[in-house]
Every structure is written in structure tokens, then in C-alpha cells.
Amino acid sequence: MTISPQAVAATVPGARPRPSGAGAGSDFARLSRRITEAGLMRRRPGYYTTRLGLVIALTAGGWGAFAALGDTWWQMATAAFLALMFGQIALVAHDLAHRQVFRRRRPSELWGRLFGNLGIGMSYGWWMNKHTRHHANPNHEELDPDVAPDILVWSTEQARDARGLARLIGGHQAGLFFPLLTLEGFNLHVASLRALRSPGMKHRTLEAALLLLHLAAYQSALFLVLSPGKAVAFLAVHQCLFGVYLGCTFAPNHKGMPTFRGDERPDFLRRQVLTSRNVRGGRLTDVLLGGLNYQIEHHLFPSMPTPHLRRAQTVVRAYCAEIGVPYHETGLIQSYREALTHLHQIGEPIRQQRRRGA
């Protein structure tokens, strides 16, 4: 359901809606000063050297185990491990894209393409374009590509207008959400290759060369080491689990949170906070979700190094309470429950249309 910031604020005790004009921007400016004074925007080269080194070493170890095991069904365990590592590579590419690792654009793009295109077969340029638009207008139905109606619908208005595949599955999209995630890994590869035809794609030749090199090396490894049946099984297990892992990492962030339409566009701070959900958890949650469990802080300060997000949360949460902006945080399981409940409710217009037509 589309909810305006004022409506959201009215449902939370003590929350005070504020104007979305230029004057309200000072709220973010004050918060930004507090964050900067706390030293939370400083680079963390030691952390990222260790993290990138571990991801590279563990991924190389996974492929080393793959080569050592040879043609055996035990390779399905290797596929599961490498699905986890592909997800971690994607999270590293995400941090590189936001210049959390390097301050300058050129090294960020170089390493982003190495991790994204070459490492997991996902176009860095395609993803950057899509993700930049998402950050600028999160959960805006006309401006955020992540909530554009495609296979799934994200608001009752989209459900009423749904056609084709979205209409076919929209009434049951909550139950189909996790099964559909098994296709997300394949979708990333297909979307990346399609993006190469886009006239706006920068460094198209480099993007294409790295993507094709990844695909050639990946498929060659599978079919040289494994029998055809095991190779296909490995590919299916690996890519399906990779898709589920990515989906489980990103789904809690915005799904089921308020969406905007038309000229509903509050100031920057409210635009980011009202549409984002934080996920509580310990250090393991931080590692598995790559820091995206602090989605509110990440959206407010995209270039903040991941290890600072936990400390920034204390500052941001207190500040939101101070100015009366709702700050939503829940556990991991509850975050999925909220997202699935939202998807089920959104599908009601489609179910009603089917009942009337029956």
C-alpha cells in the first residue's frame, strides 16, 4: 500500500511529521555533523584489506576444493559453499560501488568490475545504474527500479493494473517469493548480458570481456571436472542458492515498508528512514548481511565504511527519536514475515478479481 510520510508518522506515538521543503534538510545536516564529529566517515583500509583478502582466499579455496574433489556428488557441498562466497563477493562489490573502500572513483570501478563482472558474472555498470536510482528514490514506484512492477507487484495500485505474469502469480506472490529467489542468480547474469546492448553502458568492451571470461571459465571448470549430469546439478545448486542468499540479504531492507508515488517526495532524511528497515542481530548477522542490516544508516550515509554502521546506528536512532521520525527495526525472521505479509496483502485486488470472474 502507498503510504505518505505524514500517514506513517501519524501511526507512531510521539512522531511529528515535518515539511518536506528545503528547510527540513537541516535535519540531515545536523545529523551529518554529529556523524562526522564522531569519526564515523573515516576510511578503514585495514578492515577492507582483511575482508577482501579473506573473501578472495576463501573463494579460491572453494574452487581448489572443487578441483581436488573431482567427479563426485560431494561437489554439491562445494556448490553450496561457493554460493555463500558469491554472495559475499556481491556484498564486497556493493561496498566498492559506494566508495566505502576507496575514496577515488577509478580504483572503485576497477575493483568493482573485477569482483562483479569477473568474480560472479554480474555487470558492475548495470548494477551501479540501477542501484544509484534506488538510493536516490527508495520505494518510489515510478523512480525506484527495485519496486517497478515486473514479476511481483509492490502496491495495491500496481496489483490493480497488473497484466501478464505479474497478474498470473500476483495473488500468490507471498508463497512464491522464496521459490522465485532461486532464479535470481540466473536473472543477474541475463540482465547483465542484456545491459551490454544499452547505449548508456560505460566501458562496454571491458564489461563484456570480463563477463564473457567469467562465463567461459565457470562453464569450462564445471564440464571439464564433472560429468555432464553432475555439472548441470552443480550449476543448479550453486546458482539457486546464490539467488536465495542474495534475496534473503536484500529482501529485509525495504520490502513491506512505505512506498511513494507521483510528487510524494519528502526531504532526504525522511525519504531514506521511512522506507528502510533495520535488522537486529550480532556480529554473525553483520557478516552474513554484509552490514545491510543497518539499512537506515547505510541509506543516509552510503559511503560510510561497513564497520562503522553499528556505532552510527546509536546516533541515528537517538536523533530520529529526537526529531520525531519513525525508526523501524526488527529481528531477521520478523523482517521476512513483514515482507511476506505485505506481499500477500498487496495481492488481494488480484485475488478479488479472480473471485469475481470465477
From TrEMBL:
<keyword id="KW-0472">Membrane</keyword>
<feature type="domain" description="Fatty acid desaturase">
    <location>
        <begin position="72"/>
        <end position="330"/>
    </location>
</feature>
<feature type="transmembrane region" description="Helical">
    <location>
        <begin position="76"/>
        <end position="98"/>
    </location>
</feature>
<keyword id="KW-1133">Transmembrane helix</keyword>
<dbReference type="GO" id="GO:0008610">
    <property type="term" value="P:lipid biosynthetic process"/>
</dbReference>
<feature type="transmembrane region" description="Helical">
    <location>
        <begin position="52"/>
        <end position="70"/>
    </location>
</feature>
<protein>
    <submittedName>
        <fullName>Delta fatty acid desaturase</fullName>
    </submittedName>
</protein>
<dbReference type="InterPro" id="IPR005804">
    <property type="entry name" value="FA_desaturase_dom"/>
</dbReference>
<dbReference type="InterPro" id="IPR012171">
    <property type="entry name" value="Fatty_acid_desaturase"/>
</dbReference>
<feature type="transmembrane region" description="Helical">
    <location>
        <begin position="232"/>
        <end position="251"/>
    </location>
</feature>
<dbReference type="Pfam" id="PF00487">
    <property type="entry name" value="FA_desaturase"/>
</dbReference>
<feature type="transmembrane region" description="Helical">
    <location>
        <begin position="208"/>
        <end position="226"/>
    </location>
</feature>
<feature type="region of interest" description="Disordered">
    <location>
        <begin position="1"/>
        <end position="26"/>
    </location>
</feature>
<dbReference type="GO" id="GO:0016020">
    <property type="term" value="C:membrane"/>
</dbReference>
<dbReference type="GO" id="GO:0016717">
    <property type="term" value="F:oxidoreductase activity, acting on paired donors, with oxidation of a pair of donors resulting in the reduction of molecular oxygen to two molecules of water"/>
</dbReference>
<keyword id="KW-0812">Transmembrane</keyword>
